[in-house]
Amino acid sequence: MKRFVVAMLMVAGLALSGCGSNHGTPGNINGNWTASLTDTGNNPVYGFSTSLAVNGDGSLVVTNFQFASNSSCFVSGETETGSFILSGDFNGNVTGKFQFTVTSGNPSGDTLTLNGTVSGGTITGTWQLVGGFNCTDTGNFTITKM
Description:
Blueprint: H1 2-17, E1 31-39, E2 44-54, E3 60-67, E4 79-88, E5 94-103, E6 111-119, E7 122-130, E8 137-145
Antiparallel strand pairs: 1-2, 1-8, 2-3, 4-5, 5-6, 6-7, 7-8
């Protein structure tokens, strides 16, 4: 009987060891990311870098956002918002849906929207720019964790 109790305690301990404090957290999503956006002909159009952190509700905290090159569609005062709808496992494998929007401050009204999926340290999907003169385009993107 004593061996049975010890064996059961060991099994319970092993089962509980998989239930660490990281359960339900986004794992490897938080950090610095760099993006490359191409048009439908696979030509580079935009690039940016940013730091992302995921709140408990899936919304993003975006800091240090910076376009890699100048654009007449985004001169200054951009606002960035987004969300992750995440799933994953106890091994740190994170997957899910990604949505990210950059709205121009100057000139006003240009909006860049990215929709994609995250798998580990890479996010891929499609983007669309809607706005004023010469600020309308679509394509694909890849965002990689630095």
